[in-house]
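Q: I'm writing a short explainer about Disease resistance protein winged helix domain-containing protein for a general audience and would like to include a description of its predicted shape. Could you first generate the structure from this sequence?
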Amino acid sequence: MQGIRIIITTRKNHVAALAPPTRRLDLKPLSNTHAFNLFCRITLHDDECPKELEQCATSILARCLGLPSAIVSIGRLLSSGPHTCDFWGRMYYEARNELPDNDIMRAILEPSYYDLSEDLKNCFLYCSLFPEDYQFSCESLVRMWVAEGFVLSRGNHTPEEVAEGNLMELIDCNLLLAMQNDEQGRVVSCKMHGILRDLAHAVAKKEKFHFTNDYYSLTRMKRDTVRRLSLCRWYDERIIKFRFPHLRTLVSLGTVSSSTATLSSILSESIYLTVLELQDSEVTEVPESLGILFNLPTLYWLAAHQGEVTP
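A: Of course. Here's the predicted structure. Afterward I'll give you a sentence or two in plain language.
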């Protein structure tokens, strides 16, 4: 029909690839300048930003991925109060803590996350166990997903092959960012953008998928519901009194002191543990409780200092 045009939009690269190159337009995020101007117009109703607010505005925009929907959402939120760095910082912090129930995250991620299959959702949420800007080895991530039971063999494909397919699908959906490729062009490392991690972390907490660096929540809940626990740069040894009988994954990055008491207390009753990752740990001897973990196929141990770990 004359005058009719059909526009199809997608966030998936393999869908866009079905269109002829001459009819495909790859939309790019806003440049820093355009993002800043949009933020000022929405938040301040002006094209100019006061000097004292520029650094705060830049920090907020750094987490918006250059997406107009995210910038408009956070801009409207901040426009409702005083134009001070204290108010902006507080409101943005509260918005992040209320994920995924605020407009910012729904505008950015609902079309992507909620379209995933259940196994892909689990793989995506699992990545938020790790700190912001953490760079994953793709090989290690695949092994952890398999150890957790998120992926099973499918037809003639092994669980590892299925997990590799899941990884590439998350990258294809732009939910994970490819960081490094080998000589054959295969992705060997990836990471999760900070704002995506905020969403995944909030959904995981809401669904009790895992707990990270949250001592207060651990004191107020039934510890037998904890399946995955992340202690990243947390030296609080009060956790020594806790027991996690159904723990399946423990990620500890720069946390455990040279004493094995904290680690040993967690492991002593976690007989279902399938993934144990220790990085930058000061522990120099293997706790005896490690010997009872018969379900543990995946152990990553990277000491903070060069030297031997005493068996």
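A: For your explainer, you could say: Residues 210-303 form a domain with the Leucine-rich repeat, LRR (right-handed beta-alpha superhelix) fold (CATH 3.80.10.10).
Q: Perfect, that's easy to follow.
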